[in-house]
Predict the structure of Molecular chaperone IbpA.
Amino acid sequence: MRNEFDFAPLYRSSIGFDRVFNLLNNAQRLQALDTWPPYDIVKTGENDYRIQMAVAGFADADLDITQERNVLIVKGQKAEQKEGEYLHRGIAGRAFERRFELADHVRVENASLTHGLLSIELKREIPDAMKPRKIAIGGSQPQATPLQIDAEKQVA
């Protein structure tokens, strides 16, 4: 049984969260469709993450990793090899494209392929302007500075 959530009430009472609701809607639709290749997402630190994908049989040249804004795209495509006749083919080598939605200020640090596992290191870097800052409490009144429009009138 599949449950789908209706986000319409949230659209009516919130502003600026459209992207979040779209992500949730898309995740519901794609959950059953996209199951290969298997992957893990690991939080390795406060602002550090790792995606590990099982891509057995793929070489570095067969994989393509791209970050476009807030989306990480991992593609894999192997060239067909004609080395005899397969009596059983259990190792999946089909082409794939896996997309990961990234939060703001998350960037890819590096990627490596070892023993059939593709590891992609991610880091969230919050700009200084968005970090919490301590506000000092002063005992004197702040000096009034003229507004930019008033300052331009005084120059003219």
